[in-house]
Structures are given as structure tokens and as C-alpha cells.
Design a protein that fits this description.
With 237 residues, the protein is α/β, with parallel strands linked by helices. The protein has a single domain, classed as Rossmann fold. The protein is built from 9 helices and 7 strands. A 7-stranded mixed sheet has the order 3-2-1-4-5-7-6, with helices on both faces. Helix 3 links the parallel strand 1 and strand 2. Helix 2 crosses helix 9. It is globular, with a radius of gyration of 17 Å. The protein starts with a helix and ends with a strand. The relative contact order is 0.15. The mean pLDDT is 89.
Length: 237
């Protein structure tokens, strides 16, 4: 059995190897569904965020570059130094502070952030339940009193309630919950997985109109047609 600390170390090594060996591991810049997700995040951060904002798990800076256009003081953290190098290059025109660090022990002093963006991480980083608690505890620690965090998490619909309960029991008050209604996109994408190298599939994956149409279909179906749950939470007193 792998111990918790060993699992965290293995995940850090996995992501560093991934970013060293792949130019864009998750195709955030080439998939319309990811562009819509990033746009949704930036829109909601812009509505409420101010002061010092942390982009937790910034990957290669695709979302960071959009957040950097907001009137905030932006810090970005990732566990993979290679990702940090790429993100820094992507955002060279902006004053973003980059830090390489583990989400289970953030290299940030307590109470230093007014807002945290935790996009696709706590489940996607393959943390076990106790490490997810540690990660949530670290997010809470670095937040200023009454600071907020926006979580988006890619998982199955039957785990949405489990995720929100875990947020609440780690010292957060949920202000609202939403969905991205993107399961139709991911379903179709899985059907075309074997053909993803063809030009017409690449074009379809980039097509904003297709992504919006599929999201509209998802909305008609309801939350079960979402692979992302989105939670705005406030640090509890």
C-alpha cells in the first residue's frame, strides 16, 4: 500500500514528467470546451475577486493568461517546475508571480490571498481523500478572513455531492453551486478518440459553436449532463 506522502510525491513526479514530455498535455488551447470553461471561470472571478488572487495548479498558464487581464495581484502555483517555465513564458507581458509548490504545502504565508481559483485539481490530481482534506486545509490557510475560492472539478455526477460535502467540512461555506453541462461534448470526444489526429476532428474540437451547441443540449438535460461541478465558497469564521 502506498502511503499518503508517497502518493503526493508520485503525483508530483508524474506531472513534471508529463510537462517535460508533452507540449500541451491537456490541450487547453486547442479544445473549445476548455476555452468555454476558462471563459466561464474568468467571468465569475471578475465579478467578485479583488486584491490578491491565487491560481492554484496553473499548468502551462492557459487560464493564468486570461486571469492576468483582470485588475488583481495574481500569483500562480504548480507542482511541476516545467509547467511554471511554460506558464511564465506565456504570460511574460503580465506581472504574475509564479511559484513551484505542492498543493498540500503551499509556499505562501497564511492569510495572504483574497481569492483562490482551484480549477480542475482536487480530484484531477489523483489525491486520496485525506490528501484532498490537506489541500482544502491549505487553501483555507492561505485565504484572508472571509476570502473566497472558486472550485471547478471534473468528475462524475454521482460524486458532486461528495465533493461539496468535503469542501464544507474543511471550513468553507458554500455560496452557490453551478454546472458546466459539458458531458455531451466529452461523450462525443470519446467517440472520436481514435480519429483525433485527423484534420476534421481537430477542427471540430476547436469549434466554439459546436461546444456551445452541445452545452445548450446539456442544459436541457440538467446537472446529470455535466462533467464539471462548480462551487463558490467562502472561508468560514
Amino acid at each position: 500500500m502506498i502511503k499518503r506522502a508517497d502518493n503526493a510525491t508520485l503525483q508530483a513526479e508524474f506531472f513534471e514528467t508529463l510537462h517535460r514530455g508533452t507540449e500541451e498535455p491537456f490541450s487547453y488551447s486547442t479544445r473549445a470546451v476548455e476555452q468555454l470553461r476558462h471563459g466561464w471561470i474568468v467571468e465569475h472571478v471578475a465579478e467578485v475577486a479583488h486584491g490578491r488572487v491565487l491560481d492554484l495548479g496553473c499548468s502551462r498558464g492557459q487560464l493564468t493568461a486570461s486571469l492576468a487581464n483582470l485588475p488583481v495581484e495574481l500569483t500562480a502555483v504548480d507542482v511541476a517546475p516545467s509547467a511554471i517555465v511554460a506558464a511564465s513564458g506565456r504570460t511574460r507581458q503580465h506581472a504574475v508571480r509564479f511559484l513551484a509548490g505542492n498543493a498540500l504545502a503551499l509556499p505562501i504565508a497564511s492569510g495572504q490571498m483574497d481569492f483562490v481559483v482551484a480549477a480542475d485539481g482536487i480530484y484531477s490530481w489523483n489525491l486520496d481523500v485525506l490528501d484532498r482534506d490537506r489541500c482544502l486545509g491549505e487553501i483555507r490557510r492561505v485565504l484572508a478572513p472571509a476570502g473566497r475560492v472558486l472550485f471547478t472539478e471534473h468528475t462524475r455526477a454521482h460524486r458532486f455531492a461528495e465533493f461539496t460535502r468535503q469542501i464544507e467540512r474543511n471550513g468553507f461555506t458554500i455560496e452557490w453551486l453551478d454546472y458546466l453541462y459539458d458531458r455531451p461534448w466529452y461523450q462525443i470526444e470519446s467517440w472520436f478518440k481514435l480519429l483525433q489526429g485527423t484534420s476534421w476532428v481537430r477542427a471540430a474540437r476547436r469549434n466554439d459553436s459546436i461546444a456551445r451547441l452541445l452545452r445548450g443540449i446539456g442544459r436541457l438535460i440538467g446537472p446529470g449532463a455535466s462533467r464539471h461541478v462548480c462551487v463558490m465558497a467562502r472561508k468560514s469564521e
